[in-house]
Task: structure prediction
Amino acid sequence: MHFEAAVGHRVSDLSALWQTPSSRAAEPTVQAGLDTQAMGMAPVPGELVTPTLPEGDWPLGRALAQLQGVYILAENAKGLVIVDMHAAHERIVYERLKAQWAAHTPDGTNGDVKDDSASTLPYLRSQPLLIPATFAATPLEVATTEAHATALQVLGLDITPFSGKTLAVRAVPTHLIQGDAVELARSVLAELSQHEANTVIQRAHSELLGTMACHGAVRANRRLTLEEMNALLRQMETTERSDQCNHGRPTWRQISMRELDTLFMRGR
Amino acid sequence: MHFEAAVGHRVSDLSALWQTPSSRAAEPTVQAGLDTQAMGMAPVPGELVTPTLPEGDWPLGRALAQLQGVYILAENAKGLVIVDMHAAHERIVYERLKAQWAAHTPDGTNGDVKDDSASTLPYLRSQPLLIPATFAATPLEVATTEAHATALQVLGLDITPFSGKTLAVRAVPTHLIQGDAVELARSVLAELSQHEANTVIQRAHSELLGTMACHGAVRANRRLTLEEMNALLRQMETTERSDQCNHGRPTWRQISMRELDTLFMRGR
Result:
């Protein structure tokens, strides 16, 4: 994340805090001490970077707790950090899927794959599920699975018929392992059933990867350990554009001690 | 605490949340489900009441963490609760000191005590310190300690000369055991030195107890366990007027999930 560009989320007055964040262009202020690149934390999409900063200097702070299964509360040098868990994870996952995808389409514009392609390498790194996730499928879903085997493979999904009316998800993209495998499979099958496989793959870069990220990211009410929360915060710090979700909403908010003190009418 | 009267701190619109709370009289709205008396949690000043409600129904919620040694973060059914640790504890302690004091002055207007009084019973229940707290005292402080022995006893303080220039605090009021014993002793000695003992004791009900509560309450940067934080929240729930500190500032704030969702532009 470029913290110097995320200043719209680090406001110093309360009214602005609760308003729609201004566009980045309108707030070019550089915030000293938060340039992650200068601190040797250049974004490395697609890879988990071990933090090199001491705990006290983590821009997004030390995770304290989960709130109602939706937000992560953290403490940094400035005060309280609130993170929208799902939105942040969705963005991280999306950026990683895009990076893996881009490695297979060097020109960045074409992901052309034939159903009879000799390439069996998935574009998205795949990880088998410990226990396959089965679901009652519609006839269309079963037919789509059979017709678009290569496309599924390219997308890092292993979906096979389990019985006549049941499909089994046996592997999902590594970065989506924390999400709901069935939701993910159904959303991809829905896309595949409506389009030619080629079209879907070509569109993947812009849209399908976003859909997959949404269904593959951690959902609300998933209980995270402090270690998992901290890992997410560190991933946010090293992921491009992680300060906004895929739909442009903020993924985290800073409430400074000064703002809290004002809220409590404390003169310090 | 009367939660139905604390509605000024449970605002439903953001702008009001960050403004100075309106006076209680201006907001007579009764908030359903938060009447602590109706829930069998009638305030019992001076006593720690074991909560009778299940955890999920605690009005001030379940403690999550401390923030920068100043605030307690808690989660209740509505969302995030932020508590000013010192201000809240100061108020609880103050109400308890007042209750103990009132038991010795049934008419509520007179705490007249002669320095040569036969009564040796402290008005404020006293507790010996495991290790006496010594401090380098001024000659005036030493003289005041000797001249006002009875007044100190009434106030639940045991302060004795340790050497010519050192005083030792050997006991403090039970409710102030978590505070700074030396700060407490010096603030009381400063009052005693400026007034006749009788005057101080008579004023105690309105002012001195407040001073003592301030210096006897937990200070910022004191690390609390989750158990201690939860105990403080439960004490707030059963203490009259604990929603405001002795100076009229709020001791806690509610930030609802709806408000957080608005902050994150989440439509739910």
The radius of gyration of chain A is 21 Å.
